[in-house]
Write a structure and sequence with these properties.
binds protoporphyrin IX containing FE; Cytochrome p450; mainly alpha; Cytochrome P450
């Protein structure tokens, strides 16, 4: 991961995301901010951050699919910051269930992407997922699918509340 991350997070790579982030920001403002008397920034910033992450990491485009994915992901994120008691009805149990669903969704995306890459339907450097699928370790081995799903999950978690909180503070101050 440490070797791979700079490839898509170095300044030159980030420059390439600006246009897309701007388009998503404009659509987000039109859909969720425009014409409102009052807004609560944190949940809206979450939606925006997740949308950008889904696009940069996975090239997900469909707002309906992203919205559904984000609901499951929210349960997962709440489970991380919860008391670790695995009983029915607890946020921890909901988080575990949500993580299974998120992994399942990611595995489906990975399988489809492998087909698309093999058929040349997508560019090898299209997003972080393609980078991960084509990256090899010191022994020339590819990462397995579950490992990739876990790494994407880790990046989604790492970039979610952090970036959302930063955006919210920027608006606040
Ligand atoms: C304003 C937003 C962010 C803040 C405040 C933030 C904060 C941090 C901090 C404090 C660490 C170090 C944790 C430790 O080792 O103790 C860290 C590590 C990390 N962050 Fe972020 N982060 C942000 C955004 C992101 C984003 C957008 C991503 C993914 C695209 C990301 C991925 C990672 C990864 C992979 C690590 C582990 C790096 C390593 O150990 O080599 N972060 N982050």
């Amino acid at each position: 991961m440490r070797k791979m991350l700079p490839t898509f997070l170095k300044p030159e790579a980030l420059q390439g995301y600006i246009g897309m982030m701007d388009v998503i920001a404009q659509r987000h403002f039109e859909d969720s901010w425009q014409g409102k008397e009052e807004i609560t920034v944190f949940p809206l910033a979450k939606g925006y951050t997740f949308w950008v992450a889904c696009k940069v990491f996975l090239s997900m485009e469909d707002p309906a699919q992203i919205s559904k994915f984000s609901q499951t992901f929210n349960d997962l994120a709440s489970g991380i910051f919860s008391i670790p008691i695995n009983l029915p009805g607890t946020p921890f149990r909901r988080g575990i269930k949500a993580s299974e669903m998120v992994r399942k969704e990611l595995m489906a995306i990975i399988k489809q992407r492998k087909i698309d890459l093999a058929q040349g339907n997508v560019a090898p450097n299209q997003d972080i997922l393609s980078h991960m699928l084509l990256a090899t370790n010191e022994n020339g081995q590819f990462l397995n699918e579950l490992n990739i799903a876990d790494k994407v999950l880790g990046l989604l978690i790492g970039g979610y509340d952090t970036a959302t909180a930063s955006i919210t503070f920027i608006v606040r101050y």
